[in-house]
Every structure is written in structure tokens, then in C-alpha cells.
Amino acid sequence: MSLDHDAPPPPGHISPTRLLGTTMLLAIRAIRRHLMRSFLTVLGIVIGVFAVVTMVTLGNGAAKSVHDQVSNLGANVLAILPGQGNGRGGGGEAPPPFKPEDLDALRAQVSGVTAVAPQAQASVTAIHNAANWSTTVNGTSNDYLDAENWKLAEGRRFSETEQEAGKSVCLIGNTVKTNLYPRDEPVGSNLRLGNISCEVIGVLDTRGQGGFGQDADDTVVMPIKAVQRRFTGNRDIRAIIVAADPAYDSADVQQSITALMRERRNISGGKVDDFTVFDNRQIADTLSGITGVLTAIVSAVAAISLLVGGIGIMNIMLVSVTERTREIGIRLAIGAVAREVMLQFLVEAVVLSCIGGLIGLVLALFASIGLSKLLDVPFVFDPWTNLVAFVFSGLIGVVFGYFPARRAASLNPIDALRHE
Amino acid sequence: MSAAVTQPLIRLSGVTKRFGAGAAAFQALKGVDLDVEAGDFMAVMGPSGSGKSTTMNILGCLDVPTTGHFLFRGHHVESLGRDQRALLRRRYLGFVFQGFNLLARTTALENVELPLLYRGEDRWTRHAAAMDALEQVGLADWAKHTPAELSGGQQQRVAIARAIVTRPDVLLADEPTGNLDTERSVEIMQLLTRLNQESGITVLMVTHEAEMAAYARTIVHFRDGLVETIERKAAA
Questions:
Q1: How far apart are CA B217 and CA B201, in angstroms?
Q2: Phi and psi (nearest 5°) for B203?
Q3: Is A326 on the interface with B (CB under 8 A)?
Q4: How confident is the model at residue A294, as a pLDDT?
Q5: Is the pLDDT of residue A196 over 80?
Q6: Residues in chain B whose beta carbon is closer than 8 A to a beta carbon of chain A?
Q7: HEC profile of chain B
Q8: In terms of domains, do A187 and A242 share one?
Q9: Do A334 and B114 touch (CB under 8 A)?
Q10: pLDDT tens digits, one per residue of A92-141
């Protein structure tokens, strides 16, 4: 150790890195000395980071789940519905339904179309043996199975003749199967739909929750002509499902369909469409957007707890400064410069809040994994969310630690030493 | 120590100190002149309010005079800023207080290391120097104990170890035996005497007790903000 006693007074400069190293050590010692107080100090940050990160992670999971489900309906699937999507509603006559010729026109004239399926729906009560079940009967064609990517768990698809003649045959979804066929085999059996009897020729593969939260498996599929004749009592096609080749841009396909349908429905010039073409991808994006907004709102509420946590740190640091006035006096007397004392308290606050943030992140990780399972949404680990939350907790330490630290550094050593 | 110092280690000339302003103002020092030679052992005595504590604060570079000069090693301390005085304390001064003022829940070793930490010494230097200082005050075996586990006399010895660990020029002791019984007080005085004689540390001590002041070589009496008498004993 070389302590040169003949050197002039040292200059008023201290190496910043050495300063940081020293204060880091002092801060960690101070935290270790007061474990309980340190824990209570960071509790707010722990809860804040935990809440925000859990909410964002679950929100991302929910958004992904919605997106997956809608995409599951089939990539590049468009739906054409009568009326206007923006729901201007009100007066005026109802827009006309679609005609069977529209389907042929779409197939023939829009490039990139792989499947075109009509749709007519009705609510029915399905009865088999003693069990009955309310469901929706969906009148369509084999094209619908292709467009929406339905596979058969058992049985077969409709034959040409069954479709042409509108025979009383049906495919049932898994939910209908489990409710009406607890034991026996559905394929080949007769299922009673409302007033008619219908032969089950196949069972659809399980799909799970649909895009809007309804059960996609709760369905009965019949040839459209059978539904029109037996249930709706008219020849209206309520919707057209179009599947497009993924190689084609769905926006282009959407545009071609709109142009064709305008022509076929005699809408010219500036007149407004009396039909709407929905793109599944758009629906998916919209739904994800909604989920995103909801996530943002909930996260904002959670972020308030992070702010409260920061104020908690400031509170306890201020008390701590008062409580440690004598200690600060000793440090100053021993030769600590104001900057070092300030930095020590600042570093203490930052280290504390970073530790709190880290604990919060770990808790959030476990909670998100658990809650994802519970809520049946995929667990999506987003490193950015975690990183931002961690950096933010450190920033809270800086912001809310600054005021107490400045107060500590401004103490007069003589008064501080006299403090009881 | 360095040879041929033409002026004393410390020189106070015409030092006044006023606290507060206007009607509430209090003139604590009214023109103090005092020289302290390097290697001296000086006891500062006087009744409460005589200005001895204010003088010690100024000598300890904790406070600055209102007027007058304070020269330390030829440097005008009265013109230095807060941080520069802190650096002076860090380098040349050691403090011992009446109330020991050790950091609670901190081992003796860590307490003694503290000044070295602020000096930026590395871990091994700190440890070696702190152990050496604890050895000097006879507490090497108590290095891992916290103040709560030490007696008052031991705590004061840790505080002295902390004060001398940087090998300061001057050791300032503010009633170092004020909280101790006679037996412990004598131990502390003997320790200070030994440090003064063996290590050549200049000791400045405030005390109320003539018994303790008797260990000093120079005794300065304060009264009403002025130096009343200075008695110098013949060198032993």
C-alpha cells in the first residue's frame, strides 16, 4: 500500500468506474444488511412487474389463439354475405340472396378460386334414441369441406347424386356425436332432425373452438338442397364460401369477386354494394387487434401497480435516508464525497428495483404457464416484454431513487453525526 | 515523517465562526489562533459552548471558518469546496467519536475497511490493511463480529482501527472516552498515546476530563470562543 504523505491534496476527481464499483459493493452490503426492509421495499415492483408481464403474456397467448383459430377456418377463405358489413342497417329492403348461378360464375370467372360452396343454415333439434341436442344444420356441398379444411373422422363425403337430389344424408360434428351417440356408432344410423329423418354418412374431425368462441364441432352438414327444401323452405343461398389458391393474393381475389358480384347483381356506377366479401385473414387481424387493445387496457391497469411500486420504493428509501442519517454522517466524515453517497443510494434503489423486477419476471413466467393451461390459450414467451419490463423496473429505481439519494447526499456531516 | 517543515502541520489564524444570522446569530469562535506541530498529542478542553467542538469541526475539515485562515500542510482549507475537503479527510484525517459511530450489522472488519473502500483500494489491500489496523488495537480475533457483539471499549478500539487504517496524518478524537468507564478509558488513552509515539500520528482530542487530558503533550483551554491557555509539557 503506497500512501504518499508528501503528496499535495488530491484533485477533486474520482474515476467513474471505480466510483461505480465501490458504490455497487456498498449498496449490495446495505441491501444484505436489511433483508426484510429490502424485501418490503421491492414488493411493489415485484407485484407490478408480475402483473404487467402476466397480463401481456396471457394477452399475447389469447391473440395468438384467436388468430390460429380463424386461420384454422382455412387459409385464404373468403365469405360472401348479403348486406353491408358496416351494418348501416335501418330502412330499405333486405338485399337479395344469392342464386345457384352465382356459384358457377364465381368458379368460372374468378381466377385463383379452388372451391365455391353455398350456405343455408337452420337451427334444429337433433334426436337420436332418447337423447336430443339443439344444433345448427348447415346446408352446403363437398366444396365447403375443402374450403374450410374439414377432414372426416369416419364415413364418407356426399356423393354427386346426393348433392344434386338433396338427399336426406348428413355429416355430424364431434359435439353432436358425443351428445347423441354416447355408445353406438353414428355412421349408418338414422338421425332425426326436427321433423325429418336423415342418414348419418360420416363424422367430422374435431376442430375445437371456432373463431368467435363458439363450438365449431356443434354442427350438422347436409346437402344444401335438402336444407332448403326441408328447413328454410326457399331456394335462397345465404352465404357463399370461396377458397382461393394461396398463391393468389387474397385482396386481389376479393376485388375480382366484388367486381363480378356487382355485375351479376346489377350494381353500377357509384351505387353501394349490397353484399360484403369477408376475408378470413382480415377477420383474424381484426380479432387480434381487439385482443391487443384489451391486453393493452389490462396491462395499463397493471402498470399503475408498477408506478405505485415505484412510489413505495421512494417512500421506504426516504425513511431509510432519515433512519441512516448517522451512517451517512460517518461516511461523509470518513471522506465520502456527496456524489458517492448519492450514487450509493441511487444504486441501492436501482439494484433493489432490478431484483424486484427479476423476481416479478420469474413469478410471471410461472403464473403465465399455469394460467395459459387453465385458460386454454397457448403460452407465448415474448423476450421483448420481459426485457422491457426489466429495464422499466430499473428505470423506476432511478426515477424514484433520485430524490431520496439527493437528500442523503445533501446532508451536512456535522449535523448527520449528531442525529439521534 | 517528512523533514524540514518550515510551518506547522496545522495553523489557525484569526478564525471566527458565526452561526445563524441577524438577532439569532451566535458567535462561536471570536478569533482563534492555534498552531499544531506534526506529531503532537493535543488535548482540547473547555466548558460547553466554549468553541472547542466548533474548532474541532473546522480542524476536521467538516466545517469552514466564517473568517480567518486554516492552513493544513500549507493549504488554505477555508477556500476549498465540500468535495475537496472530503478528499482531504479521506487522505489525511481519521475520526474517532464519542458514540463510536460504527455501522450497525457490519462486521468490525468491514467497518475498518470502509475508508479504504472510498479510497478505491482493491480487496486484498483493504483486507490486509484492515486486519493490520485491528491487530494494532488488539482486536484481530474479533474481526468477524458486529458492533452489537462487542463491548463499548472494543467498539471504540474498532473505531480507532477504522481511523488509523488509512495511516492518516491527524487523528481527531471527539471525547473518545466519554461513554466508557475509567478502566476502558485508560486503555483507550494508552492506545492513543502508543499510536502517537510509535506511528507519529498527530492526535487532537477533545475531552472534559483532566485525567484523560493528562496523557496529552499539549493542553489547550477554550473559553468563550477564544483560546484561553496553552500548556505544553516538556517532551517525555
A1: 13
A2: -110, 125
A3: yes
A4: 85
A5: yes
A6: 1-2, 57, 60, 62-63, 73, 75, 80-84, 86-93, 95, 97, 101-106, 110, 114-115, 117-121, 125, 128-129, 162, 166-167, 169
A7: CCCCCCCCCEEEEEEEEEECCHHHCEEEEEEEEEEECCCCEEEEECCCCCCHHHHHHHHCCCCCCCEEEEEECCEEHHHCCHHHHHHHHHHHEEEECCCCCCCCCCCHHHHHHHHHHHHCCCHHHHHHHHHHHHHHCCCHHHCCCCHHHCCHHHHHHHHHHHHHCCCCCEEEEECCCCCCCHHHHHHHHHHHHHHHHHHCCEEEEECCCHHHHCCCCEEEEEECCEEEEEEECCCC
A8: yes
A9: yes
A10: 567 888 888 888 899 888 888 888 999 998 999 999 988 889 999 999 99
Q: How far is CA B79 from CA A413, B72, B119, B168, in A?
A: 18, 12, 23, 22
* Contacts for A73 with CB less than 8 Å, ≥ 6 apart: A148, A149, A210, A211, A280
Of A161-170, A189-198, A284-293, B21-30, which range is least confident? A284-293
**0.80 surpassed by pTM:** no
**Interchain CB distance below 8 Å, A331 and B118:** yes
Cell of B185: 478509558
> Which of A273, A298, A318 lies at the terminal end of a domain, its last residue?
A273
Q: Residue A138 belongs to what domain range?
A: 96-273
Dihedral angle of Cα A213, A215, A219, A224, to the nearest 10 degrees: 20
Closest-CA distance, A19 to chain B, in angstroms, reads 8
Q: Can you tell me the ipTM of this complex? A: 0.91
Q: Residues A332-346: what's their mean pLDDT? A: 89
Q: Is the pLDDT of residue B134 over 70?
A: yes
For residue A9, what pLDDT band results from cuts at 50, 70 and 90? Answer: very low
Indicate the fold that domain B10-232 takes in CATH: Rossmann fold (3.40.50)
Our CA-based measurement puts residue B171 at a distance from the nearest CA of chain A, in whole angstroms, of 11
On whether the CB atoms of residues A301 and A57 are closer than 8 A, the answer is: no
Please judge whether B95 and A333 are an interchain contact, meaning their C-beta atoms are less than 8 angstroms apart: yes
Tell me the C-alpha to C-alpha distance, in Å, between residue A296 and each of A212, A390, B67.
20, 18, 63
Is the CB of residue B186 less than 8 Å from the CB of residue B10?
no
Interface residue A6 vs chain B (CB under 8 A):
yes
| Residue B118 confidence (pLDDT) above 50 | yes
Co-location of A296 and A263 in the same domain? no
Whether residue A169 lies inside any domain: the answer is: yes
Nearest CA in chain B to A33: B105
Same structural domain for residues A252 and A107? yes
Q: For the segment B196-217, what is each residue's pLDDT rounded down to a tens digit?
A: 999 999 999 999 899 999 999 9
Q: Where are the domains of chain B?
A: 10-232
Can you read off the three cell numbers belonging to residue A364?
Answer: 410471471
Mutate to test the interface with A, among B54, B59, B62 (most CBs of A within 10 A): B62
Cross-chain Cβ contact B86/A15 below 8 Å: no
Distance from CA of B182 to the nearest CA of A (A): 24
Is the predicted pLDDT of residue A410 greater than 60, yes or no? yes
In this structure, the answer to whether residues A335 and A242 fall within a common structural domain is no
Cβ neighbours of A29 in B, within 8 Å:
106, 110
Contact assignment for B118 to A336 by CB distance below 8 Å: yes
